[in-house]
Amino acid sequence: MKQKVKQQFLNLKFQNKIIGISLVIGLIPIVLLGFFSYSKVYSLLIEREETALRETLHREVMQLEYKLNSYLTTMNLIVWNENIRLALAKDYTSNYEMYLTYRDTIDPLFLTTRSLNSDITSITIYTDAHIYPHDNTLRPLTEAQNKQWYEKVCQTTVPFFCISENGKTLNLICQMYYHYVPYTNIICMSIDLNSALAAAESLFESNYGFVLLNDSKETIYQYTELINTDTIAASRDLWTDKLPGYITKTETLTPSGWTALLYRPVRTVTAAANNITYIALCMVFMCILLILFVSSKLSKVIVSPIIQLSANMEQVEQGNYALSVSSESTDEVGQLITSFQKMVHTLNNLVNEVLLSKIRQQKYEIEILQSQINPHFLYNSLSLINSKAIMSGQHDISQMARLLSTFYRTMLNKGQPITTIGSELENTKSYISIQQMMHAQSFDVVYDIDSQVLAYPIPSLLLQPLAENAIIHGLDQRELPSPAILSFSCGQEKEDIIFKIMDNGCGMSEEECEKILTKDSKGYGVKNVHQRIQLYYGSEYGLTYHSTKNMGTYVILRIRKNIQNQEITSENLLF
After folding, report:
1. Which of 281, 399, 429, 541 lies deepest, with the highest CB count within 10 Å?
2. Band of the pLDDT at 566, cuts 50, 70, 90?
3. Longest dimension (CA), the chain
């Protein structure tokens, strides 16, 4: 990845590199300053909020402890009231005696207690003493056995708090234990939870969260559910004041063992720091614009001579040696332009004096070589052999003479490098027929030719070497008993023409198939054909070989349809 980024930077234009480097150098101090300012303001806001949360939570905990202690005091006054003890321990002989106990002892005490503390909604004694139930004040012990707190109250005589099943009532439970009383008595004081914690709601805004958890980490009360209660109960970081994304403070209530949690989202605390962020972003944006303007002007002055020099180099590469770049500067760029001018002048002399003379010499050598071949003499000789063979009744010799005449006539093509697909196919078919006669018809050939492509031009001698390669290195080397078949097809595919030559010969290994287009051969091999195709049509065209050992080989030749307008000169034929 690092190497790829480096390569992409190196591939950038020189002007873009200057602009990019200027941007980086200019933005680094601004970004560092903005980051430092933001981090300092951020930390100060967090520290200030932590102090405020700590003080607010402490005040609320003290107020809650005061209320809980008042409830416990009220409970103790009832539990240790001698009149209540005697009323529950007495053996009643009549209903009237019970009535007097309700009227003079229990009801006045409970009514006075509730009037002094409006948070208490009801006080109920559950007992198995010999006294009849009385409204919600006195109930049989069997009704308490279905309560969720019954097992716990039977195991202790210490008062404890618990939440009702509907979550709206806070119950203070205590067992009224007297060692000389043979009955079980349990007192339950019901307290309105919202009324008891109403003061907490006045301390906080909507973006604060306040939670009370009991000793089992169950939620007793929650104000503004900014965090899911299950998340709070399951968080391991809660008790270290590190709830992720929140500023939290916790404190334990002494009378009940509850935990009070006060928290606030960090994003609301640090909202004030966003102003600094916006200012920093505006400064960065303005600096980017200024740097882009200055660096573009500066880079244009520096890069303009280099761009002109590059354009002249492209012209020289295409053979145009007329220069339009010049420099009077003595800096590195000026020295480079001066050296380039000298080099082009020298190169122009070399081209005019050496290269062109070499091209002419090679052209003359080719013309001399072609003139040494007298195709008319060859054709007349083959015609004479054909006539003699017909007169003697040697039809095989006659056919061979005709095939050779057709093969050499299409192969020589009057010395032209470009022929038609029809002529090239006629040359290849003649060659294959000659090979069938030489092999005593030991293999069959199947043709599938699209007649619409026959008029398209094609470089000479592209197909015959492929057929020769398939016969000599494929069919001649096969060891299978099945008939040997050479398949030759030609068709169109969009703007391309596709030839496919396939044999069921001996095949090749994967390694041999990969090397067939790169290794040299003694004669005119497929490597030469592949190079000629790419020379005429480009690197995306050429040969593709596929082979399976002991099963056969097929080669695909792909060329472009139209090259009628392509200029063929002696220079691009010297391959």
Report:
1. 429
2. very low
3. 159
And the tokens for 513?
A: 């198939």
Phi-psi region of 253 (alpha: psi -120 to 50; beta: other; left: phi over 0): beta
CA-only gyration radius of the chain, Å:
53
CA triple 448-450-455, angle to 5 deg: 130
Count of alpha carbons within 13 angstroms of residue 147, beta-carbon side = 22
User: Across residues 173-181, what is the average pLDDT?
Assistant: 75
Tally of helices (H runs) and strands (E runs) in the chain: 20, 16
pLDDT of residue 201: 62
Confidence band of 556 (pLDDT split at 50, 70, 90): very high
What is the distance between the alpha carbons of residues 304 and 183, in angstroms, rounded to a whole number?
A: 108
CB atoms within 10 A of CB 260: 22
The Cβ of residue 559 has, within 10 Å, a number of other Cβ atoms equal to 20
- Spatial neighbors of 169 by CB under 8 A, at least 6 apart, are 121, 163, 190, 191, 192, 193
Q: Tell me what pLDDT residue 492 has.
A: 92
Label each residue of 288-351 as H, E or C: HHHHHHHHHHHHHHHHHHHHHHHHHHHHHHCCCCCCCCCCCCCCHHHHHHHHHHHHHHHHHHHH
What integer best gives the mean pLDDT of the chain? 77
Say if residue 506's pLDDT is above 70: yes
Contacts of 296 (CB under 8 A, 6+ apart): 15, 19
Quote the pLDDT of residue 225. 56
pLDDT for 386 equals 64
Closest C-alpha to 407, from 381, 376, 373, 431: 431
Strand partners, 250: 261
Q: What is the pLDDT of residues 196-242, one digit of tens each?
A: 777 666 655 557 777 878 777 777 777 665 555 555 544 544 444 56
Closest CA relative to residue 255, chosen from 196, 307, 198: 196
Cα atoms found within 13 Å of the Cα of residue 222, Cβ hemisphere only: 14
CA distance 127 to 90: 13
- pLDDT at residue 226, as a whole number: 57
170-to-62, 108, 121, 123, 204 alpha-carbon distances in Å:
18, 23, 10, 12, 22
| pLDDT tens per residue across span 65-80 | 888 888 889 888 888 8
CA angle 76, 77, 81 (to 5 degrees): 110
In the predicted structure, residue 475 carries a pLDDT above the cut 90: no
pLDDT of 180 reads 61
pTM for this entry: 0.43
DSSP 12-68: S-HHHHHHHHHHHHHHHHHHHHHHHHHHHHHHHHHHHHHHHHHHHHHHHHHHHHHHH
Listed in sequence order, the residues at least 6 apart from 53 whose beta carbon sits closer than 8 Å to its beta carbon are 247, 248, 249, 262, 263, 264
Count CB neighbours of 378 within 10 A. Answer: 15
Residues 508 and 392: their CA atoms lie apart, in Å, by 45
The helix/strand/coil state of 280 is helix
Tokens encoding 200: 């907490």
170 vs 357, which has greater pLDDT? 170
- Bridge partners (DSSP) listed for residue 169: 192
What are 382's two structure tokens? Answer: 């083959």
* β-bridge mates for residue 197, sequence order: none
